[in-house]
Amino acid sequence: MTALKFMRCSSRTCPTIRATIGVGWSRHASSNPRYDYDLVVLGGGSAGLACAKEAADCGARVLCLDFVKPTPVGTRWGIGGTCVNVGCIPKKLMHQASLLGEAVHEAVAYGWNVDDQNLRPDWRKLVRSVQNHIKSVNWVTRVDLRDKKVEYVNSLGAFLDSHTIEFLARPGSERRQVTSEHVVVAVGGRPRYPDIPGAVELGITSDDIFSYEREPGRTLVVGAGYVGLECACFLKGLGYEPTVMVRSIVLRGFDRQMSELLAAMMTERGVPFLGTTIPQSVERQADGRLLVRYRNTTTGTEGSDVFDTVLWAIGRRGLIEDLNLPAAGVEIRNDKIVVDATEATNVPHIFAVGDIIYGRPELTPVAILSGRLLARRLFAGATQLMDYADVATTVFTPLEYSCVGMSEETAIELRGADNIEVFHGYYKPTEFFIPQKSVRHCYLKAVAEISGDQKILGLHYIGPVAGEVIQGFAAALKSGLTVKTLLNTVGIHPTTAEEFTRLSITKRSGRDPTPASCCS
Amino acid sequence: MNLCNSRLSVTFVRQCSTIFTSSILQNKCSSINGRVSSCSSSFSAHRTMSSGHRGSRDSSGSPGPAGAAGVGGAPPFQHPHCDRAAMYEQPVRKMRTKGGTYDYDLIVIGGGSAGLACAKEAVLNGARVACLDYVKPTPTLGTKWGVGGTCVNVGCIPKKLMHQASLLGEAVHEAAAYGWNVDDKIKPDWNKLVQSVQNHIKSVNWVTRVDLRDKKVEYINGLGSFVDSHTMLAKLKSGERTITAQTFVIAVGGRPRYPDIPGAVEHGITSDDLFSLDREPGKTLVVGAGYIGLECAGFLKGLGYEPTVMVRSIVLRGFDQQMAELVASSMEERGIPFLRKSVPLSVEKQDDGKLLVKYQNTETGEEAEELFDTVLWAIGRKGLVDDLNLPNAGVSVQKDKIPVDSQEATNVANIYAVGDIIYGKPELTPVAVLAGRLLARRLYGGATQRMDYNDVATTVFTPLEYACVGLSEEDAVKQYGADEVEVFHGYYKPTEFFIPQKSVRYCYLKAVAERHGDQRVYGLHYLGPVAGEVIQGFAAALKSGLTINTLINTVGIHPTTAEEFTRLSITKRSGLDPTPASCCS
Prior knowledge:
The complex is a heterodimer.
Chain A: H1 2-21, E1 37-42, H2 46-57, E2 62-65, H3 81-86, H4 88-109, H5 123-147, E3 151-153, E4 158-161, E5 164-168, E6 175-185, E7 189-191, H6 199-202, E8 204-205, H7 206-209, E9 219-222, H8 226-237, E10 242-245, H9 256-268, E11 273-274, E12 277-284, E13 290-296, E14 302-307, E15 309-312, E16 316-318, H10 325-328, E17 332-333, E18 336-337, E19 350-352, H11 364-379, E20 393-395, E21 400-405, H12 408-415, E22 420-426, E23 443-449, E24 456-463, H13 466-478, H14 483-487, E25 505-506
Helix pairs in contact in A: 2-11, 4-5, 4-8
Chain B: H1 6-28, H2 40-47, H3 52-60, H4 84-89, E1 104-109, H5 113-124, E2 129-132, H6 149-154, H7 156-177, H8 190-214, E3 218-220, E4 223-228, E5 231-236, E6 239-250, E7 254-256, H9 264-267, E8 269-270, H10 271-274, E9 284-287, H11 291-302, E10 307-310, H12 321-333, E11 338-339, E12 342-349, E13 355-361, E14 367-372, E15 374-377, E16 381-383, H13 390-393, E17 415-417, H14 429-444, E18 458-460, E19 465-470, H15 473-480, E20 485-491, E21 508-514, E22 521-528, H16 531-543, H17 548-552
Parallel strand pairs in B: 1-2, 1-6, 2-3, 6-17, 8-15, 9-10, 9-15, 10-11
Antiparallel strand pairs in B: 4-5, 5-6, 7-16, 12-13, 13-14, 18-19, 19-22, 20-21, 21-22
Helix pairs in contact in B: 5-14, 7-8, 7-11
């Protein structure tokens, strides 16, 4: 069996890995017979699955445990973790639905004889379509695991000691114990609820919204991180009336100017913001609607409003409590696990990847790559570490915001304002003219060193298909992109991405960053 | 919460003030055909705010070499390629007398992307510039247009808008799949679309004229021909005018070719006519499978007309042929028939107004005929050298193009060429713009930087778009040998395609790279949604020395299609199946 796995590994995976990571490596020498498994992965999300599959590909004996606790209103889902079930995938689909509603109106401007006067979405049909897609991904994931010889058990695993994991093999059956040489904790996180009356009973989270059986209607979105803004935006695009309640700032951790621009764009589209406001209670009225009482922390004034749905988007917490980490001696910080550059916890053979890690970006592709690299280090003799710097990301609001590298503030903080040059510009997407879409918030900037070839530290873009635009520039940043190179890259006309090659106005110059001419 | 911080508000005010000043402009310069000087007062009036140091520098009268950009005023920063900001702040100097006796330092022939960029940049660097521009009406329908050249009037811009219209038709169908209560039995209103497109073009023409005036380029709406290497005869509406210049830049661009067959010119149209066609194109024969032919066929199909593509030899000559065939297949899958190995023989107009096209299969020799409402020639473009009387200036030509050296100089020392009229260079707007601008900086700004024509990214706006940068697989193999080239490839499934069940059969991408060593990426190819937006950043990456190792260690943005480049792991050499299995792990 081991020999067979080795054959499979050398014929299938090795050529690509060798070609791609460019280092010679040998297979995990031999499995330690003292343990049932070479690796137990706790959590079947992006990080856990990537790690488990890669480890199995490298010949390791792998067990993956995955279990989803239902939300307070009872939502549950299958294998694949947050991204597939209650994160990126349904979010992107709802975002796409909302953009398509906008596209129908634009189609009229472009001459299509479509009736857009009484355009309404069918929420149930949309939810069903989204859920069907998720189910099919769940299925493909299961098949993929089987195919890759990863043993999968739908159960909640917990440590008995640092090498022993206990779980229920089947509902109602006895608890089973297995031992493993290595353990990877990839249990991820779940949305937080505020500690106010009615929060858990009457509010929902992003865990529920994508399978919500009734139209959300007038919705209060509490929290202005990217989850909150994205939900508010697709709800608005689908014709519901979201309001965003912000405790302090919008999109904490992102570039301030871009974040405020994004909020202004949402305001322009009719999404109201309740600034410096915190919720105090949620009560169900006789008519079934939800009365939310809140307080403005700046003015101290209290207010209340009635909503059909209250969505908490105030942050996510790591799911450490069911793991019995003290039994293994794993250290935690807040509700996350602290790891070093090799993703090792304080217990050398226990690792953590994905959203459960303390202080790292909570993003699917980060989780996948770090999980995969970890498996290669554990079982294929590889040495490459995950590079958490310059990770690109996108906020899927109607005009999307994408960025890679440093925010302007971070650049200034790290390098000093005198050593930073910011190139910026507003631009007008060609397609926006005919439907007369607002170009007011179409803006981009490059944060660069001021001297030498002006190495680029960060790129920021608000506009259509932002993620598609920024991805290539993320590769460019990793390749050492400079302003010199950027401006000598020939544009692709007419695109919006080409605007990066036309950036010529510095903030320092004080000149007007609005464009005049179009094609010369 | 204060949503607009102060910096932002300032920017907004600035935006508003720009709109305000441009509306003043419209009022004061209501006569757009008037001479430049008639509006100069109003321009200088609204410019005073930013011209604090202008007057003093003007009065100091020190001409100084134009090359010393930023002399006198402190430029905001020093960088050879980013000093546009400094340049824009320079005063429009009194010209230093170069030849002494010439009317202009520079005459640019052609007011398209290359010519305008060159003319404007030359003025910003202190040259006295005239720009001649003239559009000959098309032979069939007499279509003509304003300043700005091919891209703005009959190229990229209207093409992209029609493409967008066609995509939006598709979006309406997708909206229904996503649950919108829209009746997707829809039809386009061709005339409304054409009107919208033309209105947009007119507004760009206007902005271009204002911009020229603003930048003090003398614009002459006339057809220029050389008398000698320093003298040009301009044919204007009002008569003829002889003008002289130290330097000439030829940027006359190109126009579509017609085949030499009966009825071609009388009954066929080209991309010069299509975007302002005053009737629905209906069933259309598109002759030619270059990118223009495929793009036109693509949006016509999307708008509900019935295009057929006639291909003489291969699809998308010059592009990666695997990708080209995938593009063709994706169009065939959408119901666009391709008549392969076929050449048209004649076009006759029938009594009912329909066009009878006779054609021949060049392999079998078989002849056939079919009726169409419209015949669109997209068989290539020719350089507009004919009217320039180049022999008088001694400029040599190759076919209908002008060969230039790496400085864009022709064989005559004071005559240059940029844009589509150059022999053997990519015919693309941004190439023309950058080349024209760099030329002007070398001529008048003391710069030395030359245009780099390598690794220019481009996009074909077919329904499923194709974009690429760098070498095709064939070219890489030719250049480095098959044993030294590794091709990573993969099919992929855009997340958004699942619900409307759009075909993912042709969503494909590949990276052509060095096989050994650092595995430097030679070329990237992508077939899928918003291809141009996806490839642009990778073009910058290629210019920054992208390697496979860097590419696959770049963290993806999920869920996008562009992230598929970071997931490329299967080599062609391995023979492994490049279709994907899992989605998010």
